[in-house]
Amino acid sequence: MAVEPLSPQEIEDRLAELPGWSLDADRLTRTYRLGSHIAAAALVMHIARVQDELDHHSDLTLGYHDVTVSVHTHSVGGKVTELDIELARRVSALAPAHGAD
Description:
alpha+beta; single chain; 4-stranded antiparallel β-sheet; 101 residues; 4 strands; 3 helices
């Protein structure tokens, strides 16, 4: 099954189900704030595992107490696809376990 870019309306509809996520220049993005640098680093490791499971990888930026996730699908010209939405859903599900807000 080929991966296709989502329409602007499809992206908007899916973002409504992903609090804190937004569209920024054809990328889904979210920054999580955590209680410590160690907690932020642990979240990065868990996100990396999810990315490997999905075989779909985002850009991750580790700050002092925060982690920023930014993702789009390279194979369709850097547009947002269902792969990106699924990664965002999975990250959103695991982030609270790390104390992320």
